[in-house]
Amino acid sequence: MKAEVVDLGPCKKRLQVEIEVEKVREEYESIYRDLTKEAKIDGFRVGRIPRPLVERRFGRDIARDTKGRLLARSFEEAVKEKGLRPVGEPDLDLEAIELDREKPFTYDVTVEVKPNFDLPGYKGLTLEAPRVEPTDDDVKEALTGVRRRAADLEPVASAAKTGDYLVVDARVAGEDGAELWKEEEMMVLLGEKEVQGLPFTLGAESLAKKAGAEVTESVELGARFPVEAARGKKAEAIIKIHDVKRPKLPPLDEDFAKKMGFESIEKMLEHTRAQITTERERGAQYQLRLKAVDALIAGAGFPLPEKLLEDQAQRIAMRNKLRLAQFGLPRDEIDKRGEEIEKQSKEQAEREIRQFLLLERIAEEEKVEVAPAELEQEIHRAAASANKTPAQVRGELESEGTLGLLEVDLREQKVLDFIISNADIKRTDSAPAEAGAASDKAKAAKGKKKSARKPAAKKPKAKARKKPEKK
Q: What are phi and psi of 198, to 5 degrees?
């Protein structure tokens, strides 16, 4: 086999391949022999059909399968020989390639490849991280939430204030006066800024009133409104307040601690402090990973495969538009945001691909790998979270083609943890943001479909050969 590479750009190559005629004949004969073992034609026994008849009836299938095998094997060999690192699907029309058993088999294929670049410095990065140690006020605030959940509700004659619960009748009427939704004696909470528990947004000041008051407000119906056809429209909310109930918090004492399952108030304080610290450490670690990726991307400017970037951006844009539709945003509003969505999707796609390429190179440099036991442990965690068996989760990941993505995610987290362990961490006074779903690797991988986050070489494929039908 001969292979030559023509440079079409930093991330695009044309691979020109020629396979000697002897290999072409050998592959053709192999496929011919396999076919004659199962081909059926009326009037002939299996395996005894004259060759001219077999080739006249099934010659096109034999030629197509010969091309497919030659192409797949030679492409893999040529890529390895030339040191190429393809991503995405090769640009090739199998049907347009001719096969002649008396001539060498030749083809050109255009491929996008991973860029060559120098790694930025990834050891000794200076990264800022929020403090994780809670103050006494943080612990007190957390315990206030516990006390609120255990509080008794007492009716009050005064106007409702933040933290009070209200028993209300609520209904919503459209601009034409028709009733869209109604519920009686529902419990809502007067939050600091909004009323919580209603299927639409209403400012807290609207219900900061005494029992017996009736309020009418213009509202805009969002994604959580139960009548889908009314979402995105303006309406009128009419709310009648029956009762205002104020939580009576239990005292923070030894009796309360024991009621909550602790030996003493001191043990309860220790547990609460440790719980806050653990949650903040998760959030801080998540932020550090984001900042490490930001620092790597800022220090590495290299071109990206254009088609890979375009395809990934389109997938993200489609996913974002679908999410907006599910949240109830009207189609014309989504269309108006089209340009903005496309721009944001391309930026996200570029970040994802750069992150993958950078962390992959660092993993190779530092020999970071995911052991089978680590992958299995993550599957067990996902299974426990989803109340399924590990075998079920593994089967789902394999059938969806996302098992490899889970492994890539685990490797990326190990690389980022390595970078952070070698970084100069500066602690700030700000509290960490929530780690969110992004910190849960197993759940993230379970929900993903194949994407450019894991660019990989793909062999050119031929259509599967159908078994010869009985004539």
A: -90, 150
56 falls within a domain: yes
- Contact (CB, 8 A) for 165 and 247: yes
Residue finishing a domain among 87, 113, 139: 113
Per-residue burial over 279-307, b = 16 or more CB atoms within 10 Å of its CB, e = otherwise: bbebbbbbbbbebbbebbeeebeeebbeb
pLDDT at 56: 86
Q: Which pLDDT tens digit goes with each residue over 207-243? A: 999 999 999 999 999 888 998 888 888 999 999 999 9
User: How would you classify the pairing of strands 2-9 and 12-19?
Assistant: antiparallel
Nearest to 443, CA basis, from 396, 374, 391, 373: 396
Crossing angle of helices 306-326 and 338-366, rounded to 10°: 120
Q: How far apart are CA 39 and CA 46, in angstroms?
A: 6
> Could you tell me if 423 and 310 lie in one domain?
yes
Does residue 183 sit in the same domain as residue 273?
A: no
Answer for the pair 41, 6: CB distance below 8 angstroms, yes or no.
Answer: no
The one-letter amino acid code at 99 reads L
Q: Which of 113, 134, 169 is the last residue of a domain?
A: 113
Tokens of 306: 């254009």
CATH of the domain at 10: 3.30.70.1050
In the DSSP assignment, the letter for residue 194 is B
Query: The pTM is what?
Result: 0.74
Same domain for 216 and 296, yes or no, is no
Domain range spanning residue 185?
A: 152-248
Q: For residue 328, is it left (φ>0), alpha (ψ between -120 and 50) or beta?
A: left
Whether 388 and 270 share a structural domain: yes
Q: What is the mean pLDDT of the chain?
A: 88
Supply the pLDDT for residue 460.
54
Strands 179-190 and 165-173: antiparallel
Three-state secondary structure call for residue 182:
strand
Structural contact between residues 313 and 346, judged by C-beta atoms closer than 8 angstroms: yes
Structure token digits, residue 210: 């005494």
DSSP state of 296: H
Q: DSSP for 335-388?
A: HHTHHHHHHHHHHHHHHHHHHHHHHHHHHHHHT----HHHHHHHHHHHHHHHT-
| Cβ–Cβ under 8 Å, residues 8 and 14 | yes
